[in-house]
Amino acid sequence: MIATSLLLATQLVVWHSYRADEQKALEQCVAVWNRAHADVQVEALALPYDGFASKLEAAIPRGNGPDLVIFGHSAIGDWARAGLIVPLHINDDAIAQFLDGTVEPLRQNGQLWGAPLAFKSLALFYRKDLVAHPPATTDELVALAKQVKATEPAGHYALAYEAGASFYHAPWLHGFGGRLLDDAGKPALDSPGAVASAAFIESLAAAELLPPESTGVVAAQLFNDGRAALTINGPWFVGEIARGVPFGVAPLPTVSATGKPAAPLVEIEAVLMPARGHAPEAAAAFALWLAGGEAARIRARIGRQTVAARAAWDDPEIARDPILSAFRAQLAATVPMPSSPAIRQVWEPLNQALRKVLRGATSARPAMLEAQKRVVEALRPPPPRAPGAPYALLFGVVLVGAAAWAWRRGRAAGGLPAARAQSAAYAYLAPAAIAMIVLVFVPFAVGAGMSLFWHDAGHWTFIGLRNFADILASRDAPVTDPLSFYFTLAVTALWTVTNVALHVIIGVTLALLLRDPLLKLRGVYRVILIVPWAVPNYITALIWKGMFQRQFGAINGLLAAVGLHPISWFSRFWTAFAANVATNVWLGFPFMMVVTLGALSRIPKELEEAAALDGATRWQRLRHVVLPLLKPALLPSVLLGAVWTFNMFNIVFLVSGGEPDGATDILVSQAYRWAFTRGHRYGYAAAYAVLIFALLAAQTFFAPKEETAS
Amino acid sequence: MKALRTAGVHAALVVASVVTIYPVLWVVKMALSPSQGFSLSPSPWPTHVTLANFADVLGTHDDAGRWLFGRQLFNSLVVAAAVTALGVALACSAAYALSRFRFPGRQTSLRAFLVSQMFPGVVTSIPLYVLLDRLHLLNHMLGLVLVYATTAIPFCVFMLKGYFDTLPRELEEAVLLDGGTRFDAFWRVALPLSRPALAVTALFCFLTAWNEFILAYTFMNDPRAWTLPVAMQRYVGDYSTEWGHFAAGAIVVSLPVMALFFALERHLVGGLTQGGVKG
Fold first, then answer.
1. Considering CB atoms only, which of B27, B35, B97 is closest to A543?
2. Is the dihedral of CA A298, A302, A308, A311 positive or negative?
């Protein structure tokens, strides 16, 4: 009986990216629901956060999406416009059960798009062993910071937080009366309040009241070590606090200059309903239940969530919880995270302005004015639709030309008779060729075609070659600016040449050292020297980033040991570039070493012995016998290695992240930023990709003949 | 003089080994530390040692109580093994054609394999998604296997073609004279002689499939169909990363690769490059 009812039951799938306790709480909620509703069975799938949004954007339009999705409200603007989600109807009585400020952000264009689960914002974490009462105003905060600087040893701070990130700066920006976007949705980084907030952190940095390179990792380390009494972070930070650290949470201080509270951005986590779900009524019923009191109590108790349902806060255990109630107190002074597409153009320029100010490269006002200018430029209206006919004609001409060229090449190679005579060759080649055409060349052709379009929330407008024109004319930045195509191209070329040269030099040197078969411990060395190749590079790259950290990093520790000054690696171009190169060389030399070892084993000993008999020195033998013989063996690997390095996205993205100011970005990481962090300009990113491809493909025509033609 | 030189060689190799192993010790340290924070202290030794992170990573279950890690490890192995088999099969067949026949389109094919390495992945994932959807290969391991195999094929073709070029043709011609077919020559002579190069291409295919996670994540909906790198990515969150788990996961993921590496090392050294050197 139960089995049949389960078979007939509606199945709902919920996608979320909760982890640890929050995941446990959600799964417990689902279990409670499933026990009570035999006819509607829910399954919760935990997905990685990275790529969550792009997975949804791919899956929902093709009917492969879930029935419900849990996500922050700031995605609603885009997803609603792209038709990825549908409104969720909640009647007024049900809305009244949620805390003030948790429902409004879910409204867009007069519709409600989700049921609020929890609110997440920053607040002030303090160590109870270092400060008795957290500062209530910025004046108290600055006084405390000065006192710590005066009385504590160097390297101790009152406050450490990720000062160079827009999200973490937003509380000051709002507290000084500024806003990210004005009422019309235009950027407002040049407003007096925004400039004043940048001037505030400028003054803190100038007085050395903030740690240099204030990243989240550094702030967490200082807080855990007791070298920072305060940090600004969200509820997720609790899990990063070391065991035994006595900490409390309080609302952020009031800005003394304005009397306004420092108001962080708040993200409302909500259950949203994707379009094309197969059982919308059942999904809506579950969504409302999950947001409501019974489930909220489970989520608050087990998941330690700051839940939106009032009923949960009536539970004395939850209401008395000092951490949860501190975040609830903070909710009164928050600003909802903007949901319009414009906001995504704001983050990167604002981050860069803040970092420039923090390292003293620019003062607050010009930095914010420049950021404002960049955001305005990025938000320019889309180019007009281009007429299709001339492009169709051009495309036809190119196609005919290509066919004619192929025909002539075919004729030159012997034409159809020659092809028929060698028909066996095509049989051997066909499986790989077909697979490559279908799964590599066709997707790339489609992707390249996207470069002729303007993308906005799932809608594509044909704009011809406008993206290419904008990139090549350096429309988004002056030619000498780090964001211009030409600057990035130069950096990419330098990056490729430096890396490949070092890979070859180090790889060949080590192989020559390891060549002697009688060398003791040879096997051990080989094994160790191959390790960088085997460990996934997305983690080792981050380790290297940590080693280059200014205050704690191993590299500066080494410099200090030999009496040199510590270096802020990521604040200048050459040092940041060097950090990227060091990481990539470390990752890449084992490949070259192995290739060389193999090639060396094939060089006949007799040749060298003969040279030695003729009186050639060790160096002469290496220079005139060994290296010339190595060259043809290394050439294919060097060529492929150069292509791979040219497009080596991971290292640049993970190590320097483009710092300073995007100067160390290479072409492929710029393309990635246009596609994913600067507002989904897929067309623009595709144009970048086509240009990268064209540059590399042009190179092959100058490549040594042995590679492609032997 | 000789002793001095040997000491110099050892000194250089020891320095290189220390530089090589130092960052990896950090991964080990974070994996063994109880905290989920990112370790920045200069010492690569953990202060408190615990195996809890490994236990958590190896012991993941889904809410139905099924052992998720085991399933994902199995998926990874199956996908990587299938990619290896398919990639090597397609690559050696194509490489043989490019090495042994002179046919119209040969130059273009060689160039096309090289050129395919130049496509930046940024723009191809959405077209690939649509394509696999049309072919009903989404959420299907076969889709993933096909995509990975085509990623690995060009490098394998170059390596194998170079290697085939160095094999003396006389042996194969003898087979043909004895009344054998071209396929006999390929299957019974050329392939057995190319074992080192095959080992290298097999390893390369395996690595390509083993470490990839972006496509696997995009194409697979069910966590029970994921490969291990996707599962590891779960430890990286929107606001914070569980470094202890992530590091333990990275070590778990790299162990089979290292094992394979060391098992194949002898072949590797011979196979990667003999192709390039023309005897």
1. B27
2. positive
Pairwise CA distance, residues A325 & A321, whole Å: 6
Amino acid at B225: A
What is the C-alpha separation between A521 and B95, in angstroms, rounded? 37
d(CA A537, CA A520): 30
Q: What secondary structure, in 3-state letters, does A227-282 show?
A: CEEEEEECHHHHHHCCCCCCEEEECCCECCCCCCECCCEEEEEEEEEECCCCCHHH
DSSP string, A309-326: BHHHHHSHHHHT-HHHHH
Handedness of CA A305, A311, A315, A319 (dihedral sign): positive
Distance between CA atoms of B121 and A689, rounded to whole angstroms?
A: 8
Interface test with A, best of B63, B90, B164, B206 (most A CBs within 10 A): B63
Task: Spell out the residues 6+ positions from residue A617 whose beta carbon is closer than 8 angstroms to its own.
Answer: none
What's the Rg (C-alpha) of chain B?
A: 23
Residues 6+ apart with CB under 8 A from A136: A253, A254
Nearest partner of B38 among A216, A680, A256, A295, judged by Cα: A216
* Tens digit of each residue's pLDDT, chain B (279 residues): 678 888 888 999 999 999 999 888 888 888 888 877 777 666 777 778 888 889 888 888 876 778 888 899 999 999 999 999 999 999 999 999 998 888 888 888 888 888 888 888 777 888 888 888 888 888 889 999 999 999 889 988 988 888 888 788 888 888 888 888 888 888 888 888 887 778 878 888 888 888 888 888 888 888 888 898 888 888 877 677 788 888 899 888 888 887 887 777 666 555 444 444 433
Residues of B in contact with A534 (CB under 8 A): 254, 257-258, 261
Q: What is the pLDDT of residues B203-219, one digit of tens each?
A: 888 888 888 888 888 88
CA atoms of B218 and B216, how far apart (whole Å): 6
| Burial annotation A26-44 (CB, 10 A radius, 16+ → b, else e) | bbbbbeebbeebeebbbbb
Q: Chain B contacts of A668, Cβ < 8 Å? A: 120, 122
Residue A151 CB neighbour total at 10 angstroms: 8
**Could you identify the residue written with the tokens 């803040």?**
A354
CA B186 – CA B145 distance, rounded (Å): 25
Q: DSSP of A130-187, one letter per residue?
A: T-SS--SBHHHHHHHHHHHHHHSPTT-EEE---TTSHHHHHHHHHHTT--SB-TTS-B
Distant-in-sequence, close-in-space partners of B90: CB < 8 Å, separation ≥ 6: A431, A432, A435, B149, B153
Burial A614-650 (b: 16+ CB within 10 A, else e): eebeeeebbeebbeebbebbbbbbbbbbbbbbbbbbb
Distance CA B272, CA A392 (A): 46
Asked whether the beta carbons of A222 and A202 are under 8 A apart, the reply is no
What are the pLDDT digits (tens) for A212-222?
888 888 898 89
Return the residue in B38, B111, B160 with the most chain A beta carbons within 10 A, the one to mutate for interface testing.
Answer: B38
C-alpha B268/C-alpha A490 separation (Å) is: 35
pLDDT at A599 over 80: no
Q: Do B237 and A529 touch (CB under 8 A)?
A: no
d(CA A585, CA A593) in angstroms, rounded, equals: 12
The verdict on whether omega for the bond into residue B23 sits within 30 degrees of 0, i.e. cis, is: no
Secondary structure class of A68 (helix, strand, coil): strand
* Angle, vertex CA A688, rays to CA A660 and CA A672, nearest 5: 55
> Residue type for A523, please?
G
The whole model's pTM is what?
0.86
Domains located in chain B, CATH noted: 68-268 (1.10.3720.10)
Judged by phi (left if over 0) then psi (alpha if -120 to 50, else beta), residue B65 lies in left
In the DSSP assignment, the letter for residue A120 is E
- Distance in Å from the first CA to the final CA of chain A: 72
